[in-house]
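Researcher: I'd like a structural prediction for the single chain below. Treat it as a standalone chain; there are no partners to consider.
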Amino acid sequence: MPALDLTAFADLGVFTPAAGSDAAKAFYDRWGFMVLRDLVDPALIDAMEAECVAAQQGVLAGELDARYGSRKYLDDESKAERFVNYVEHIEELAPALRTALATRALVELVTQILGPDFWPGRGGVVYQDARPGRESGYTRIGWHADWQSVPHLDIWPGTAFTFHIDGTSPANGFLRVVPGSHLWATASPFENINNVSVPEGAPAARGYTDTPPPAPMPLGFEKIRGEIPVYAERGDVILHDAYLWHSAARATDDDTVRRHVRGGWHGGDTSLMDRETGFVKNAAR
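Model: Treating it as a single chain, here is the predicted structure.
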C-alpha cells in the first residue's frame, strides 16, 4: 500500500504572502479562520517577545499603571498577585507589535474581510501567557464566539488576530475550532457557565445566516462533532471570525508555556467605536 501524503491536511488553512490574499479570503469566508505564515519578520517577533516579557515583569513588580494588569479574564483573580497571565493595552508598551499590526499584507486582508472602515476594539490588545502551573490563573477557555462578550452592541461583524510568540501543540495547548460555525445563527449567552447577566438589547442570536446550529453550544470544554485543532508555529498569525465557535485546550505538559498577543477589529457601527462596551465573561475557564 502506498504511503499517504498528509501534507495537504497538515497545511489546511495556512497561507503565505506568496499565495495571495484572494485564496486566504475565500478560505476564511467559508470556514471562519486562517493561519498566516511568513507574514512577520522573525526579528520583529523576537522584539515583540522581549517587549511583552518586560511589560509582564513590570506589571508584576507594580512598576506599570494598574490599567495594564488585567484580572477580568482569570479563573481566580487572587493568582494575579503571584503571576501575570495578561497584560492589557500591550500595544502601548510594545513598539514591535505596532509595527507588526501595520504590516501591509495584513491590513489589506482585513480590509477585504471587514471593509476599509474597520476599527480596533476599545479594550486594546492583550499579551497572554497561558501555562498549566498552580500559580497560573489562565490555562484554557471553554467554547464561545467572540461576539458573545459584547452581544448587545452592533459592533459586529469582527475578526480576531493572534500573533504567536510560541508555537502550539497538545503539549502546551492549542486552538479548537468548529469550521463553518460562523455561518450559524448562534444564540446570545443568556445561559452561561459563569451565571453572568447579558446586557439589555442583546439579540436572540447573531451570525452570517439565519441557520440555527445543529446543537446548542456547550457550556464547557466538551467535544463537538466536526471540531478540529488549529496549530500554529512561532510567528504565525491566526485570524478568526467573531462568530466562529472556538475554545483553547489546556496544556498536557506542566512545564510548557503558550504565549501570544491577541486583539481584534470591528466592522460594525462606527458611531460605537468609542463607547464603553463592558465585558460578558460567559466562557468557562
